[in-house]
Write a structure and sequence with these properties.
elongated
Length: 144
Amino acid sequence: MAFARAVPFVVLAAASIWQAGRASAGRRSPRFDWTLDLAVATRALSKVPHMKWMVVLFLLALLAVGMARAGLAAVLTVAVGVGWEVAETTVVGHHAALVDLLPDLVAVLAAWLVAAAVGAARSRTGRRGITAVPETPAPPSPDR
């Protein structure tokens, strides 16, 4: 059963790294931009696709390893982001950069916080799932 829960994460992670490394315009010698400054970081944080896919991957990793191991899910997800950047180092038209990991980290942290809040709310209410109709208290008995 645990293997089946991991399949979506593994398949999407492998496919996304493969896609990042596709070289339809050709290959070049490996290049990696190590620049970290405020302007570059601000531009990197506008990369919504990076953030969106990190959230999806984190949720799939969380499904695979469980909420009790959310830290492992975060590490696995960020490792995929590192894989994207490494795969892009030789692809013409792609720009592999350390700063591109910033939106990945922000998205994973945000998704982790939301998942933790949802988990805390579920444990506080004692519910394991979502019910369509909220429970209503029974009306008081007429003999009171």
